[in-house]
Amino acid sequence: MLAVHQTNLCKVQTRAPQKAHTVFRGVARGNYGHYQHHSQKQRMFAQQQSFSSLNIPPESQVCIETAPQGQKIKGAFVFGNVLVWLCGLLFLQSASADDDTKNQKAKQVKKSDSSPESLSNCTLPVEECVLTFAPEVPPPITRKHPVLLKVNMNTFIKELPIDTAYTYDFWSFNGQVPGPFVRARVGDVMDVNFTNQDETGMQHNIDWHCVHGPGGGAPLLTADQAETKHARFRLLRPGLFIYHCSVGPVGLHVANGMYGLMLVEPEEGLAKVDKEFYVLQSEIYSEEAPRDKGSRKLEASYTKGLAEDASYVVFNGRMGSLIEELGGHPLEANTGDKVRIFFGNAGPNYISSFHVIGGLFDKVYREGDLVSPPARYLQTTLVPAGGAALVEMDVLVPGIYTLVDHALFRLEKGATGFLEVKGPDRPDIYHSEAPPKRCENCKIHP
Ligand SMILES: [Cu+2]
After folding, report:
1. Ligand 1 mean position to 38 CA, how many Å?
2. Residue-wise pLDDT tens digits, 305-329
3. CATH 2.60.40.420: does it fit domain 126-422?
C-alpha cells in the first residue's frame, strides 16, 4: 500500500507543481477521506503516518520548495489545515483502536510462523503426548513454552460393538473409535510416529486438519502394512481440529472409524472449567443384517455410503456409547459445574445440529475457532462434516441432559447420549407440584 500512495502523491504533484503546497494539503485531506472508505489495513497505515514521517520523494520536495513566488500562505489558513489533519488523526486512532485489539491475538499466533530451525534439528524439550479415548480428555496444558510433542499413532482393524445386537470391523486409530484425543499448544512441534498394523494390506495415513502443508501431512504418513512413518509438523494456529485417514476411498476409511480430535491450545491456554468431555459424531454405513447368519457382525456398505443413507449416526463410535442401558456410560457432572464439550463431527457425509436437551450453551466457539469471541447462549450449533465446536455450559439443575443431533430422526439411528448431573434440587429454577412423568417411546427423557 505504501508504494501506491507514494505513486498517487507524485502523480498529483506532477500535474500541478505550481500549486504544490495546496496540492499537498489536498492529498492529505484526500487520504483522510479515502481511508474512511477503505480497509482496516489502509486505516492503520494512515494512522501511522504524519507529515514529518511521510516518505516524500525528492522531486515532490522540490515542488514544494519551488512554489511560485508571491503566493503567500496565510497563517490562519495553515493553522486550519493542521487542525483538520489533527482531527482526522484522532478520529483514525479511535476507529482503529478496536481493530488493534481484535488483531492482537491473531498477531500473537502468527509470530511462530517462521523459524530458522529445520524441524529435523528441533532442539525443543521433548514431551510425550498424553492420549485419551472418548469421552476422556487429556489434562489442560500448564507449561508456557513449546515442546517437541511425541505422538504415537497406529492403526489396526478391531471388532467392536456397533450397538447391543451387532458388531463391526472398525478401522481404528490406536485400537479405539474415535481415535485418541491429542492435546497440544500452539508453537509445539508435533513428532508423529504412525505404524500401520492393519493385516489386510491396506494403506492408511493421517490428515491432520491443524497441519500446514499438503494433505495435512498425509503424504508423509502414508504407511503400507507393517510400515512405520515419521514426520514432524510445527503447529502454527490454535483451534479444535479433526484428524482422519485420507487413503481412498476416503469416505470409507472415515466411515469405518479412522478419525479423532486434536486440540491446539492458544499460548494463554483455555479458561478453567470443572469438567471436559470428548464427544465425536459420525455415521456408519452397513448392511442391514449379518451376511453370515451365525455371526453378529455387520459388513460395511459402500453403496449406502455413496447414497449418504447412514445405517447409524452415533456419538463416540457406537450406538449408546453414552447410555448405560445400551452398554455405555453417561457423562457425569455436578450441579454448578461449568462443563466443556469438545465436539467433533467426522461425518463423512452429514452436518450435525448439535444440541443438549435441557441445557443452554453459555459459550460456543464455533467451528473450533478459539481466537474469536465465542457466541453466547445458543441452543443448537451447526458442526460441519470434518469440523468441530467447543461448547461450554453451566449445569444448574440436577437430572439427565441429552446430547442429540437435532436432525431428530437421527435419534433412531443412535445420535443421542446422556449427561447425568447430580446435586440438590433447584426449585428456584425448575419446579412443579407434580412429579415428573416419562413420555412414551422416549429416547431422550429417561
Ligand atoms: Cu485408512
Report:
1. 47
2. 999 999 999 999 999 999 999 999 9
3. yes
